[in-house]
Design goal:
This protein is mainly α and 122 residues long. It is 60% helix and 10% strand.
Length: 122
C-alpha cells in the first residue's frame, strides 16, 4: 500500500474524523478554513481516492457523496504490514521495530497482542 500524498491525507483525515458521508463541497469548505484550495483540485483528488479504493461513493441527486472505505487504523496497519514485508527477515524487522518503541508503544503492543489472543511476552 502506497502512502497517501499530502492532499490525499488531508482529505482522508476529514473522512476519518467525521466518520460519515460527505460531499466534496464539505471537504473544500473545511480545508478553506485553514488555506485556500480550489474545488476542482479537491474533486480530482477525491475521485482519485475513490478509484484507489480509499473512498466509496453514492449518488444523492446530482452529486456524489463519499465515505472512507476503511478506518484510519486499517490504513495504518496496511502500511505497517508493507513495512514488515519490505525486510527479508521478518523477525529481525519486528525486533528492530519493537526496539524503537518507547514504553507507551511497548505497552500498546502488549495490549494489542492480548486483544488478539496471543501471549504478550516482555
Amino acid at each position: 500500500m502506497r502512502r497517501l500524498g499530502d492532499l490525499e491525507a488531508e482529505i482522508m483525515d476529514r473522512f476519518w474524523k467525521w466518520n460519515r458521508p460527505a460531499t466534496v463541497r464539505e471537504v473544500v469548505d473545511d480545508i478553506n478554513q485553514h488555506r485556500d484550495i480550489a474545488y476542482t483540485t479537491v474533486t480530482t483528488v477525491t475521485t482519485i481516492l475513490f478509484h484507489k479504493g480509499y473512498l466509496t461513493r453514492a449518488r444523492e441527486g446530482r452529486i456524489w457523496v463519499y465515505r472512507a472505505a476503511a478506518t484510519r487504523e486499517a490504513y495504518a496497519a496496511a502500511l505497517m504490514e508493507d513495512g514488515l514485508a519490505a525486510g527479508e527477515d521478518r523477525p529481525a524487522v519486528l525486533a528492530a521495530f519493537v526496539a524503537n518503541l518507547d514504553e507507551s508503544g511497548r505497552a500498546a503492543l502488549r495490549t494489542a497482542l492480548r486483544a488478539a489472543g496471543r501471549p504478550a511476552e516482555d
